[in-house]
Amino acid sequence: QVQLAESGGGLVQAGGSLRLSCAASGRTFSSMGWYRQAPGKDREFVARISWSGGSTLYSDSVTGRFTISRDNARNTVYLQMNSLKPEDTAIYYCNAVAHSQNYWGQGTQVTVSS
Hints:
By secondary structure, this protein is mainly beta. It contains no helices and eleven strands. 0% of the residues lie in helices and 57% in strands.
């Protein structure tokens, strides 16, 4: 059974940092990533990393501020978020892909106060 468990969300002031973690279990994933959904908005892509960690992709809104990484020994992906802005406030969801099938975590709330 596949499980994705996110952690690390919380409340932070603008300019601060948070690190999200997503521990995956149940199978090996070809790529893992993060999406977010703000109130009243659609879920949007944030960042993705390949299995090897050699390929990463970021949305324009987080490039230069967020860094995605993974520890394959722990089957865990991280999202280091720096220079946070109020517009980064959202529920952040972990996503994992295996054999073209998508899996989702339950989400973790990130709130950035101005």
